[in-house]
Write a structure and sequence with these properties.
Elements (H helix, E strand, L loop, with lengths): L20 H18 L9 H15 L18 H7 L6 H4 L7 H31 L4 H13 L3 H4 L5 H20 L4 H17 L4 H18 L3 H26 L12 H4 L5 H9 L6 H4 L3 H14 L1 H19 L19 H5 L2 H10 L4 H26 L3 H15 L17 H5 L5 H13 L6 H4 L26 H8 L4 H31 L8 H4 L2
Length: about 550
Amino acid sequence: MPSPPSTDGQTAGAAGVRGREWRLVVALWVACTGLYWLTARAQLYAGDDMVYLVVARNWLEHGVPKFGLPGEELTVSKYWLGQILLDLPVAPLLDRALAHDPGQRPQWLAMLLLGGYAAAWGAAAVALLYLLARQLGLRLGSSLGVALLYAVATMNWPYSQHLFADSTMATALLLALWGWLRYRQGGSRWALLAGGLGVALLGLCKPTAAPLAAIVALAIAGTLWRRRTGVWPWLAAAGPGLLAVAAILTYNQWRYGTPWALGYAEGHDPILGFSNPALAGLFGLVASSGKGVLWYNPVLFLGLWGCGRLWRREPAAAWLGAALVGVNLALYCRWWAWPGDWAWGPRYLVVILPLLLLPAGFALERLGELATGWQRRAAIAACAALVACSVAVQLLAVVTLSADYNQLLVGELHGTVFRDDRLGVPGRPLRDDQLLAHYVPDFSPLAAQLWMTRVAWHARGDWQSRYQRPPWYPLNPAWVPVAGAHCPFSVQPWWLFVWRYGLPHAGALLGLAALLLALTAAAAGWLRREFARNRGSGATAALAPSAQSR
């Protein structure tokens, strides 16, 4: 059913971005890029994003050789072309960013450029979520609201510090869904091409992204089939995907000797595979104290409130979103490495995180329609509490490196205190080497992150006493890490790291941070002005809800 008339000068249920509203989209992207760049990390940490950068650097230095160059760790054939191609522009910065002397100016320049590049991609997902919300018929304010929630109240904020393929997959999925929905509602073939490019990039990122790419591709094909279109729309939609498949097969044959190299035939994967109990994995991904997506993104509870309205307004999109979420959960709840360590929260759910939050835009609409009185005040207070908790959780990951806790668990506690060698079976690795962190609240990374922040902040003072009182101390005082000569944690982001530790060139870097802050504030002001102009001019999209559901 159509929504009540809008109070912000728009037609309720109008869908899509047109005309001057594109300036608002650009302003949103610029403002979020500035915010994410200001909170970029000061240090690189070995992990999946490092592997992608190493492979991209090796491409530039040696062409596309056979596998086995120095620095290519793990089973790198898992790391498909998508993120490697995106990393090529910044791959030459890797060696400078890894310089051992943190006071070197070239190292800081390289780190800042890497941080800005990652920030721009993180902000692109925010802008695309806004576009998708408008295409679904959400009003201007609700669309901007849900986009900003995604920007600062979900894991997208800390993940904007990295060049993980999981974040790129989320961006690609949003592009694919927006292109499909815009074309379905009467958009041009350019929208169809955008959807096809999104599907192609999604499929290029990881082997496990193939089912999600296939689902969106089927939705696009279904739309084309119902329209009885000619050959060119099919080529626009399928061409990028076919090129992506050909590129993957050719690359695998060239580099690994077989087109079917998926990277899952080595290491722990062939031994453990899909051995995790489904219910344990589902509980772990959704509600466990260490990896539950609801604890890391409390604002998702707001999304539950808007699901019904989304279902009524655009049932096809709701079914498609439910299929994507269900398939992703079904795939990873059985996977032995379901936690996605070492990373903040459930890394494998980052790709569907915007879909889980999107119904919150409809909840914001409902909130605006509530009559004045205690019900409205109570709803606003509850929403504000959820948002505040979510922002606080993301700040924990922004101000301290979350991987430091994984290092502590694996390197010390599980190696000396709990003795993993007594738990494992000879010849078979442990399926979960951080069991306590995943399921026991006292060892939850959320509690540990707050503890690490307190320790890091006192790194130049009495940090040892705080270090030896971790969150799990009340369980057993003997389960404490041994304090060394130097604090193992550090404060982030980069400007706070420079100021706190008094590094060389601190004045120049803090001046740069002040300039970036001013530019970000200017972008936020631009966003506010564009929002006011579009609301005042009655910015609308073309289709009403009755036409959307065709």
